[in-house]
Design brief:
heterodimer, A: alpha/beta, five-stranded parallel β-sheet, four-stranded antiparallel β-sheet, B: 569 residues, mainly alpha, MetI-like fold, 72% helix
Chain lengths: 204, 569
């Protein structure tokens, strides 16, 4: 279970600090909803460990993550953009999610190939991210997040700006992940995304 | 619907990266920085300890020393002013004429000034501006002047040759970094050259100026080979040369130590002043210069004017190089084909091997030290300590290498038994001298990983060795090869420490050249100079090849496009 307990954070010069508090079970999707500047991305960065809160705690299965480094937290982030390393191939980008030194076993490589096939990117493994469309890039980012096999997925506007076909495919993938026990924290402006994916909505 | 991708979830990342602990990032660089500080202080301290240091009042009452200090400041000041006066228009023209034929060649030519050995250039300058030089003949005949190269004229001329291209590259880079939106607005408003300068170029150039002026001042202030060869007696001697003379001929370590401290204080003051006014990181030119069209240079008259100005600048740069080539070629024949068959002159071969034996390890040491210092600088945990390591890397710009070398020689004297150990000391000091330049070249590429990539890498656990291998190395490969080439090239052309410690019987190429010039073997000297330049070109070409992608692990893209080079350098 993910418990966010009185997580307080303010940027320098910010008069009123944010105070986040919610909890969610594995296999659920909690949507974070709010206007621009309401703190959605800040919350995502706090959960991922990219920002340090002034007070409060984040518990996962009862254990505190407050002082854990980003790589020690059981989660994977997918942002609206800039998810891929531009100089590495699609396969390498996904492979880094499986092994951070790209030491991939044959079954890992097969898993990547199967994954690419399942998201409609068969044969794209050796391409550079700059050769892909926005929707294709997001599919690669999401595939990496899935193959990384972490129990928590932090998705910050992952479907914004994509065409209908790409959105449908990614939604389907996310629903499958949820069904397999992943806890998804989804920051999204889009009401349809929230309606299809979310089990509960947290408004900031 | 059946799940597309099924798997068991992991709890925590299972593959810790080698060398990922923060201490691996922080401590090697800090150790190098501490070693630099200790070596500099020990070198200076040993000299002061051995010497009877004259008092300050005695120093001021010594007319020779006063003259040396005053002349050093004066020539450096003049060199800075003239270099910038040449560099400003050249940079502006290059910025507003992004597409003329030969622009890339000119930019490469301007890079040469960083590594061209000063002793070689001096031979070219003498051929053009010396008593029998092409320029002197024309000037005396047409203008009726009595131009004399030796003295402040030659020193400042050579300094401008070296520093104007360097300054122009840095200024061009600054101008090109002006926001595109500002340039667009200026173009829409149809601003003329003056207002374009005021609105777009000056704001971009202003932050770079203090650091640039400090860099050029320090390079001219500590200049050695140029003053040794073109200086004219006590009236045209700089502190660095006076230190050499004190140590080599007068055996007066006290005077050398005092002069070294004066140099340290003056150069340190200028760097402090530059730092107070916002010393920017980008003090060495980027190899990639973006091109932007500006309306200010589009009329036929503007292009004609710009072309003429650039032609004069190219002529200024090319003539000494042409002289080196033309004078060196006949001598090269006798150096490599003495009897019509190929056999290398043994003296030239020995000097070449000795030079490479010093320069390659020195280049390698400077690159490794720079990488470790930069890595420690990216550690966020102790900002004050990491800033200190940065400052330590610039110490070699202020502490005269001769003083450092002599001090360390005195310190290690009991164990410095043979000439090879002396050469090891020369290698160490050459590496230290190259460090500030190499550091500047690698600073930008090392910091070019954007924040989104850093966040991704942090979360994926791409840390330590893995981060270096997969994220830094592809970006750093070319800059590293270039930095290695510059580090080695600077050491290859060194005529400072080696002049003091090198044995006359075992010369390096610059020492051999100096010996040949001193014994009026002009053809042989020209050949050695040309050979040194060719060696540098081969070295750059070799490292350029080494910097290109060497292997494809199967995970790297098959696309023929290369990895984009980082924006800064």
């Amino acid at each position: 279970m993910l418990e966010v307990q009185n997580l307080v954070f303010a940027y320098p010069g910010q008069e009123t600090p944010w105070n986040f508090q919610f909890s969610a079970e594995p296999g659920h999707c909690i949507a974070i909803h709010g206007a621009s500047g309401s703190g959605k991305s800040t919350l995502m960065n706090l959960l991922a460990g990219f920002l340090e809160p002034q007070s409060g705690d984040i518990l996962w299965q009862g254990k505190s993550l407050r002082h854990a480094a980003p790589w020690q937290r059981p989660m994977t982030s997918v942002f609206q953009e800039h998810n891929l390393f531009e100089h590495l191939s699609v396969t390498a980008n996904i492979g880094l999610g499986i092994h951070p030194g790209l030491k991939l076993a044959p079954e890992d490589t097969q898993a990547i190939e199967r994954g690419l096939d399942s998201v409609g990117l068969s044969g794209f493994g050796q391409r550079l991210p700059s050769d892909l469309s926005g929707g294709q890039r997001q599919r690669v980012a999401l595939l990496r997040a899935i193959l990384r096999k972490q129990p928590l997925m932090l998705l910050d506007e992952p479907l914004t700006g994509l065409d209908r076909e790409a959105r449908d495919l990614l939604r389907q993938l996310l629903l499958q992940q949820k069904a397999q026990g992943a806890l998804i924290v989804l920051a999204s402006h889009d009401e349809e995304d929230r309606r299809i994916l979310a089990d509960s909505v947290c408004t900031l | 619907m059946s799940p597309v991708i099924q798997h068991q979830r992991r709890s925590l990342p299972a593959y810790p990266a080698p060398l990922s602990h923060s201490r691996w990032k922080l401590w090697p660089g800090l150790t190098i920085a501490a070693a630099l500080i200790v070596l500099s202080l020990a070198g200076l301290g040993a000299l002061v300890w051995e010497a009877e240091l004259p008092g300050l009042s005695e120093f001021w009452s010594n007319r020779y020393l006063r003259t040396v200090v005053t002349f050093t400041i004066w020539q450096a000041f003049l060199s800075v002013v003239l270099s910038l006066l040449v560099a400003f228009p050249v940079a502006r023209i290059l910025a507003r004429q992004p597409a003329f034929p030969g622009r890339a060649f000119l930019l490469r030519l301007m890079e040469l000034s960083l590594v061209l050995p000063s002793i070689v250039l001096v031979s070219g300058i003498i051929s053009v501006y010396g008593r029998q030089g092409w320029f002197t003949g024309l000037a005396n005949e047409w203008l009726g002047t009595s131009w004399n190269l030796y003295g402040i004229n030659g020193i400042v001329l050579a300094h401008v040759f070296f520093n104007a291209p360097l300054a122009a590259r840095i200024l061009l880079q600054a101008i090109e970094s002006a926001p595109a939106s500002q340039r667009r607005v200026a173009a829409q408003l149809g601003l003329g050259r003056w207002w374009y300068w005021r609105a777009v170029e000056w704001p971009a150039v202003k932050p770079v100026l203090p650091g640039l002026a400090a860099l050029v001042f320090t390079l001219c202030f500590t200049s050695f080979a140029i003053v040794m060869t073109l200086g004219g007696g006590p009236a045209a001697t700089t502190i660095e040369v006076a230190i050499y003379q004190s140590l080599r001929f007068e055996f007066d370590a006290g005077q050398a130590a005092l002069l070294a401290m004066v140099q340290l204080v003056i150069c340190g003051f200028f760097w402090w002043l530059a730092a107070r006014h916002g010393l920017t990181a980008s003090l060495l030119p980027d190899r990639r210069v973006a091109s932007h069209r500006s309306k200010a240079g589009s009329s036929i008259w503007a292009r004609l004017g710009d072309g003429t100005a650039l032609a004069v600048f190219v002529l200024f740069l090319v003539t000494p190089l042409m002289a080196i080539l033309l004078r060196g070629l006949p001598g090269m024949g006798s150096a490599f084909f003495p009897d019509g068959t190929f056999s290398v002159n043994p003296a030239l071969l020995d000097a070449t091997l000795r030079s490479l034996g010093i320069a390659i390890p020195a280049g390698l040491m400077s690159v490794i030290a720079a990488l470790l210092i930069l890595a420690s600088g990216t550690s966020q945990s102790r900002p004050t300590i990491t800033r200190l390591s940065d400052v330590a890397a610039y110490l070699p710009l202020m502490v005269p290498p001769l003083v450092l070398g002599t001090g360390l020689f005195l310190l290690f004297r009991p164990s410095l038994g043979n000439s090879s150990e002396g050469l090891a000391l020369v290698t160490l000091i050459n590496a230290m001298m190259a460090l500030p330049f190499v550091l500047q070249m690698l600073r930008g590429p090392m910091g070019s990983l954007d924040s989104a990539s850093r966040m991704q890498a942090d979360q994926l656990g791409v840390l330590g060795w893995y981060r270096w291998r997969w994220l830094h190395w592809p970006r750093m490969r070319r800059p590293l090869a270039l930095a290695m080439a510059y580090g080695t090239g600077l050491s290859l052309g060194d005529f400072g420490v080696i002049a003091l410690f090198g044995s006359p019987g075992q010369p390096t190429l610059p020492v051999l050249l100096y010996q040949q010039l001193g014994s009026y073997r002009i053809d042989a000297a020209a050949a050695t100079g040309l050979w040194l330049v060719l060696l540098l070109l081969m070295l750059f070409s070799l490292f350029n090849r080494l910097g290109s992608p060497l292997f494809n692990s199967g995970l790297a893209p098959k696309s023929s496009r290369t990895v984009p080079e980082p924006e800064h350098a």
